[in-house]
Amino acid sequence: MMLIVSDSTDGRLIINGQYYPLRPGTVFIGRPGQLIEVGLPKGVEDGIYILRFHAAAILQTESDEANIQHVNSFPGEGEAMHLAVSTVIPLVKMITTH
User: What keywords tag this UniProt record (predicted)?
Assistant: First the structure.
């Protein structure tokens, strides 16, 4: 899966032919097999963060051993969401720098 986060005030995100304007705080959770295109204004090198991840559920068993199971769906996947810029951008920057 991919987490795509915009820190740009201008640009576009096209997913499977669906157009989404980029604004700071725009978040998209993409799944494997989707055709994703990002367009930023000329000269803009920053403004979009793309993080790849695997979703998993950690289940506790009777023997107190953790059982990790891959999750094939994720809340919000395939949708564009707008989150608070003051929350999402510092979090993404922290993840990408550490």
Answer: DNA-binding
